[in-house]
Amino acid sequence: MECEVRIQDSGFTIPSPLSSVVNPKSTVTLPPPFAVPLSFIQIAMQWLRVSLSASIAVFILCFHLLSAEQAASPDSDRVSALLQTEQEQNAQDWSGQIFGPLMWPLWLGSLILIALIFERWKALRPNNISNPQMVARTIDFVSQLKIKEAKEEAEKSDTVVGRAWGQALHEFMLGGVTLSDALTNSTLLAFKPLKRNLQAISTLGVVAPLFGLLGTVVGMIITFGQIAATGGAEKEKLAYGIAIALFTTAGGLIIAIPAIVFGRFFSTKLLAHAEEAEAAINRMNYRHSHALSDEKNGESGGSPEDTEEAEE
């Protein structure tokens, strides 16, 4: 005979060979602590099924991605080659615009401007114009009426003012001209070469923007011509015309600004040297006039210190 053991609150039966003890129609009920939760087993099986499906899906996705990358590698190489070629063409276009025919006058003007600036910078250095020690000693000799010694002192100085004063004192010793006129005329003649190339620098400062404006007009003509011909469809040609306009304008301004600045700087510097030489000439004439006056009054043997006290 057979009986069955029923687990309480589960509906799950376990057959048991209890033939002689238990009635075939009876059941044995186990207490709730020994019950097995079937819902937990179902959740575990479901989670295992989902995990397995997700793993398979991820594996298939990775396989497809690797296959697509391998298939697209020739296209990526071709795209990179095209990009490199385009960059090289853009570099050539930029170089062609910078060194194009419309930029040639500006490049030539920039080279000329650099040469003129360096030449004037060297010519207008203070050591080339005047020597303060030479000026002081020459004035002292003239104040003592030692014209020959003053002439020799001025000629020893390899400066513009020294050479001019040496020539002026030589003419004064020959006679027929006053000391003031001789010094003024010789100094003016000596300063004339110092103005050389200043007009050229100023002219470059005026002409360079005009060349830039010319390039701007030509670039706009090219741009609007392309718009009229193609309706603006060919953007590369439109960009070419605009680039010409911008490059020439920038080039003209780059040349004009330094030309104007250095032109004003050199002119101011030359004017300062001329005023300094004029002040020295006036001081020499004053000392010479007092020396002649003292000589007439019988005081020609006075020292330079006495002459300075008389001036005060």
Q: What would you note in describing this structure?
A:
It is built from ten helices and three strands. Strand 1 (3-7) and strand 2 (13-16) form a beta hairpin. The protein has three domains: 3-35, no CATH class; 37-66; 103-311. It has helices at residues 38-98, 104-123, 126-129, 132-143, 147-156, 160-174, 179-191, 198-230, 235-296, 304-311; strands at 3-7, 13-16, 27-30. With 312 residues, the chain is mainly alpha-helical. A three-stranded mixed β-sheet has the order 2-1-3, with no helix packed on it.
Tell me briefly what this model is.
This protein has 312 residues and is mainly alpha-helical. 76% of the residues lie in helices and 4% in strands. It has ten helices and three strands.
Give the strand order, joined by hyphens, for the main sheet.
2-1-3
Average pLDDT across residues?
Answer: 75
Q: How many β-strand stretches?
A: 3
Strand content: under 5%
- What Rg is obtained from the alpha carbons, in whole angstroms? 52 Å
Largest beta-sheet details? 3 strands, mixed
Oligomer kind: single chain
**Overall 3D form:** elongated
User: What's the order of the H and E elements?
Assistant: EEEHHHHHHHHHH
Q: How many H/I helices?
A: 10
